[in-house]
What does this fold into?
Amino acid sequence: MRDQCLKNKGLRDKFFDTPGSGHYDTAPMPRPGDPLLDAQSLAAAGAVIEREFRIADFARLAERLAGPEGMATARLALSRIEGVAVGDLRVEATAELTCQRCLAPLQRVLESASRLAFVASDEVPVPADLEAVACDPQRLDLAALVEDELLLALPLIARHAEGEVCTLPDAAASQAEEGGRSATRRPFAGLKELLKH
Ligand SMILES: [Zn+2]
It folds into this structure.
């Protein structure tokens, strides 16, 4: 199990309605058209949920992007393991970021794949290799979960790759760039990005 609190910090606490826990500062905002899921029942039925979300509806994500355009797709396959509701969640979105070298926009595919165990609290043991998500398993907020995954998939520092146009305004910026020397000889770095599209 990964550090089950890691993903919760500053992300999930605010968005899952956990009565009595007092985790969030403001009441979670239900989004119209995004009903909370009963992960317990869906897991018992072995359901697969596929959804599309507008990035513009993800306020926390949108403020980290150059623009709020685009859609995110999510696929959640539910099952029960050792009595726990488990979700295999795959999320993908193409996001417009700001290059931190030239400040021009750049597109990146954000993607993630996680195996999550939906449990009522962090104390509940979860099967091996699953990441615990503390929430009310009968009121799962898939939209918040998807937004969390995309936030975690954001690059720490967005930059154009080699092979992409990146117009550096002055040489001082390249000197300030850490590890710039070792990054200069990577002929395939840009190719890897290209192959993603
Ligand atoms: Zn750039």
Notes: Residues 99, 101-102, 104, 160, 166 surround zinc ion (CB under 6 Å). Residues 1-28, 178-183 have pLDDT under 50 and may be disordered.
